[in-house]
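Lest this sound abstract, we think one record worth quoting, the chain in one-letter code, the fold tokenised, each line plainly labelled:

>
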Amino acid sequence: MPCPTTLQYPNSRSQRMNRPSPLQSRAVDDAPLPTTAPHAPIVPLPHNAPLRIKELLPMQIEAVIAGDARLIIPVGTCEQHGPHLPLGTATFIAERLADDLSAEYGVLRAPTVEFGVNVDTERGFTGNASVRKKTLHRMLNDLLDSWEATGFREFILLTAHGHDPHQEALATVITANARVRVVDIFAVNLSELLEGQTEAMHGDEVETSIMLYLAPQMVHQELARDYMMSREELRRYRRGSLKVPGNSAGSIGRPSLATVEKGRILYERIRSRISDRIFLAPAMAG
């Protein structure tokens, strides 16, 4: 039974840029579709747009799978990220990246899994909603089993939530034969792009900057409050053995240093590195 793979970052962005996009090969114009294509859909596919399966007809999905049997699955959370960011911050970031990669490479994109395994806190935050690790694991097993039975041969799980139990739920998903690739968005090295941190934290300089770039209307920067942890405290926090302290506003890091331009640079770095390491690899045949 295949399990999720551990992946490395290749250095050649030029390889990705030179690789023909599946969308380019399926460009839609006024000409009729070739009758020789056994899986050509009667209804044209969206052009230069995300291929969200909940918005497509079965015949359109079948046509895409015939050429590329991969499925991108964004996995989010409903979790506080400090007083200045929405509870869906990790979800919005994962969804946007999934949409951009789907549009660029012509890979199908699943509906978002909206809930994940949250970090415990010393005080309650209204609206937080979490599932247990085994619940998320079982749900993903069921979903991937259903999709594999319809022809998908590779699953790409995208998440912007670094809590270890959450990551473990994704990393232990099992399929019959399909390949599973788990992508931790914030595992990309961003250290030289940051001013007050050396790595991504929570509701911090990284997430706040990216949200200022992607959805500025959702960010209330005037409410941002900095709270730093030592590296050992951060490790324990991610593992789940240390709760978010009661004297923290809920965020960890330096969100006060976030800017729109920094968010653009961070997002493009993440998109580029994940694009290189995931989408340069050949898709598994259907």
Q: What stands out?
A: Helices lie at 13-18, 58-67, 89-105, 133-149, 164-171, 205-214, 231-239, 260-279. The beta strands are 51-52, 70-75, 108-109, 154-159, 179-184. Residues 260-279 form the longest helix (20 residues).
